[in-house]
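Hey,

Quick one before I head out. I ran the complex with coenzyme A overnight. Inputs first:
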Amino acid sequence: MITLRPARPEEAQALSELCMISKAYWGYDAAFMNSCRTELTITAADFQNAQIQVAVDGGKLAGMAQLQIDGVAAELDKLYVDPDFIGAGIGRALFDWAVRQARNAGANVMSIDADPDAAGFYRRMGAVDDGMSPSGSIPGRTLPRLRITL
Ligand SMILES: CC(C)(COP(=O)(O)OP(=O)(O)OC[C@H]1O[C@@H](n2cnc3c(N)ncnc32)[C@H](O)[C@@H]1OP(=O)(O)O)[C@@H](O)C(=O)NCCC(=O)NCCS
């Protein structure tokens, strides 16, 4: 059974690995994945500046979401599901968690810089397109930006 709970700081390395294997699900090559490593590394600062929620299946980390709230604007920074669990509803559960948290904190909008292959998922969750954003990992690459009104 899948349950959600806050991430623990000692899980930072395991969560960084989860982000990498999840991102690689879309078939990116090794060079591309290496370029993403820094951005996908969960740091101690992330635990201080953001809320990180994990989905667990028994003892196994199956997914994570990282949410940052700044006044009325929230940013869903990372939403990654282990490929073994993709398509099982974990993305929706973590997205719904982020919406609830942001709303309860007083935010009225939540934005996402999406992987192009994941943009359809966010649209399915009710988000709308909001232009393009520069990739934090690959110079010159742009990513679809989406937002959902809370
Ligand atoms: C994108 C991702 C988080 C979705 O999580 P998931 O657990 O597979 O999604 P769910 O099973 O909860 O799917 C919920 C709904 O969205 C739809 N959906 C899921 N992925 C989709 C996609 N890539 N495009 C369009 N629709 C999608 C599902 O069909 C489902 O629809 P339903 O309402 O008819 O049931 C997951 O595929 C993932 O981690 N991908 C690799 C890493 C990544 O790109 N993360 C996002 C970074 S911005």
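The mean pLDDT is 97.

Talk tomorrow,
K.
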